[in-house]
Design a protein that fits this description.
The chain is an alpha/beta fold and about 250 residues long. The protein has a single domain, classed as HUPs (Rossmann fold, 3-Layer(aba) Sandwich). Helices cover about 30% and strands about 25% of the residues. Helix 2 packs across helix 5 and helix 3 crosses helix 4. It is globular and about 70 Å long. The two termini are about 40 Å apart. The structure holds flavin-adenine dinucleotide. The site of flavin-adenine dinucleotide (FAD) has 33 residues, from helix 1, strand 4, helix 3, strand 6 and helix 4.
Amino acid sequence: MRVAVCVKQIPDPASPYDLDPETHFVVRPTDQVLDDTDRYGVEMGLQLAEQTEGTVTLVSMGPSGNLQGIRQALAMGADKAVVVDDPALRGSDALATARVLAAAIAREGFDLVIAGTESTDGYAGILPQQLAELLDVPALTFAKKVSVDGEMVRIERQTQTGYDEVEASAPALVSVTAGAVEPRYPTFKGIMQAKSKPVDSLTMADLGVETAAQQRIMSIRPAPERPSGEVIEDDGEAHLKIVALLEQAKVI
Ligand SMILES: Cc1cc2nc3c(=O)[nH]c(=O)nc-3n(C[C@H](O)[C@H](O)[C@H](O)COP(=O)(O)OP(=O)(O)OC[C@H]3O[C@@H](n4cnc5c(N)ncnc54)[C@H](O)[C@@H]3O)c2cc1C
C-alpha cells in the first residue's frame, strides 16, 4: 500500500517566535520541528506500510528551512518526502494548502492519505476533509484505530461517548487522533539513514497549481489569561461538588 502522510513543520512551540509587524504572520525560523500531532500519522502510516509491504511518502507545504522536522519523520522510517516551498504560497489559507497538497499527493500516486486532525500552530482542523474532497476519495476522520484488510480501510471514529465503526475502500483519506498509536522514537540508525533519504522540493509551477494566497490577518491580540481554577474546601461534602462539576463538564 502506498501511504502518503501529511506532515507540517512548525516553529518549536517551546521557543518564543517573532511576528511580522506588517502581515502579522509568524516569522518562520530555519529550525522548525515536526508538528507533534503529525507523529501519530507517521507512526500509523509506518505500521500500515509494514503490514502491507508498502511505502510511506511524507508530503508537506511550507518554508523548508533546514528540513529538521521532515528529517525527524524520515528518521522514524518514512521512505521519502515531498516538500512544496514557494514564496507565492505565503499566507495560504487551509483551502489553498489543501489544493497544493492534493496536487503533490496525486503526482506521487497513493492508496491511502493520512493526516492529523488539527495542527498545533494553525489548528484550522479542516484540511483533511478538504484534501479528501479535492482528491475525490472518502474521508475517514478522527480515527482512534485504523486497520486495512485488502482494499478495505476500517477505522474506529472517536465520538463524544465512544466510537463509530466506519469503513471505505481504498483509495481513501484517514485523519488520526493523538493517542491512536504510540509514535516510535527514531533509532540512531534511522537518524543516520534519514540524512540520505530523498526529499523532493517542488514549487507551484512544478505542480501546475495556480492557487493564490488567500489569507490576510487583520489584527492580533494576546490570548485572554485563563481564569484560576475553583478551590473546593472539604467540608465533608467536597466529593459531591466535584462530581457535580465533572458532570457539568460532561466528563462523567
Ligand atoms: C511560505 C509559507 C509560509 C507559511 N506560513 C505559515 C504560518 O506562518 N503559520 C501557519 O500556520 N501555516 C503556515 N503555512 C502553512 C499553511 O498556510 C497552513 O498549513 C494551512 O493554512 C493549513 O492550516 P492548518 O495547519 O491550521 O490546518 P489543519 O486543518 O489544522 O491541519 C490538519 C492536518 O493537516 C495536515 N497539514 C496542515 N497543514 C499542512 C501543511 N502545510 N503541510 C502538510 N500537512 C499539513 C497536518 O497533518 C495537520 O495535522 C505556510 C506555508 C507556506 C508555503
